[in-house]
């Protein structure tokens, strides 16, 4: 199907989506989930090709994600609730992001693979074990298992960010006393050690932390600059973004995992990049 054969309203919607920085794949996915037939995909491809050879490799995303207006958001397979939103820094708390069973499965998948967590050294770029971060973790490449594929699809639907912009899922386990001291998830562009990580997909612009269990005591995610503490609840997701449309990084997103006091804590973290992640 040719782009020009589409209804004028639909053509305009696609042009506008492109202006907003959406990539072809995301546009096609949205149209298909709205019930348009598969052949609409050819029309979108043709439109992108017509734009001086631009391909499905997208322009960088606009950094800031807008505020959600509805109280629930539909994804391909789950209705996610919005429990809290903060404007500055940009934070949202989601309920019902993962089922209890998915949380348990992800923990079971990770348990045999966890190793002490590392931190990227801002000067040398090496990944070091560091007292700043005393959790253990397991890393899963994108699409590593069908469960992970399903979760990645859901996150992509929820945030309208292509799966390709996500780093692999990082599952973390904190035992009593373990913590992640306050830090930024974005990479300081002036630190030589971050040059290499920035080459694989550009700057991180947002983080989604998924809580995989309830913690008996301690273990909140804390934002010390704004006095915000989010308590872990199984299946909830904590989203925050730190890059505005002009590329300014938001220092108010300083955050950490406070020490677990009793029980243990399991989370899965998805970091999102401005470009396609090639890690
Ligand atoms: O443990 C937490 O709640 C925070 C984790 C975190 O900051 C991260 O994974 O980047
Ligand atoms: Fe973090």
TrEMBL record:
What PROSITE patterns does its record include?
FE2OG_OXY
What superkingdom does the record give? Bacteria
InterPro entries from the entry?
Answer: Oxoglu/Fe-dep_dioxygenase_dom, P4HA-like, Pro_4_hyd_alph, Pro_4_hyd_alph_FE2OG_OXY
* Cofactor(s) essential for the protein: L-ascorbate
Name of protein: 2OG-Fe(II) oxygenase
Please indicate if the UniProt record lists Metal-binding as a keyword. Answer: yes
Keyword check for Cell wall biogenesis/degradation: no
Provide the Fe2OG dioxygenase domain boundaries. 165-274
- Any idea which UniProt keywords this protein has? Dioxygenase, Iron, Metal-binding, Oxidoreductase, Vitamin C
Read off the Pfam families from this record.
Answer: 2OG-FeII_Oxy_3 (PF13640)
């Amino acid at each position: 199907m040719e782009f020009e054969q589409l209804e004028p309203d639909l053509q305009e919607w696609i042009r506008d989506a492109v202006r907003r920085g959406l990539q072809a794949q995301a546009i096609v996915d949205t149209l298909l989930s709205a019930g348009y037939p598969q052949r609409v995909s050819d029309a979108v491809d043709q439109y992108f090709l017509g734009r001086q050879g631009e391909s499905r490799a997208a322009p960088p995303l606009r950094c800031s994600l807008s505020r959600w207006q509805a109280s629930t958001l539909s994804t391909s397979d789950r209705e996610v609730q919005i429990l809290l939103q903060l404007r500055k820094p940009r934070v949202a708390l989601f309920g019902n992001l993962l089922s209890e069973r998915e949380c348990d499965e992800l923990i079971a998948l990770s348990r045999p693979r966890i190793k002490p967590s590392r931190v990227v050294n801002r000067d040398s770029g090496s990944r070091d074990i560091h007292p700043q971060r005393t959790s253990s973790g397991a890393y899963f490449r994108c699409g590593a298992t069908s469960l992970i594929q399903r979760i990645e699809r859901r996150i992509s639907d929820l945030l309208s960010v292509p799966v390709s912009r996500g780093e692999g899922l990082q599952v973390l386990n904190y035992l009593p006393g373990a913590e992640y001291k306050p830090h930024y998830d974005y990479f300081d562009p002036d630190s030589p050690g971050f040059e290499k990580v920035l080459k694989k997909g550009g700057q991180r612009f947002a983080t989604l932390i998924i809580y995989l269990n309830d913690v008996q005591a301690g273990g909140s995610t804390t934002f010390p600059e704004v006095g915000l503490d989010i308590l872990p609840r199984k299946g909830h997701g904590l989203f925050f973004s730190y890059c505005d449309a002009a590329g300014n990084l938001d220092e108010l997103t300083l955050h950490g995992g406070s020490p677990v006091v009793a029980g243990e804590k399991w989370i899965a973290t998805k970091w999102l990049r401005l470009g396609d992640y090639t890690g």
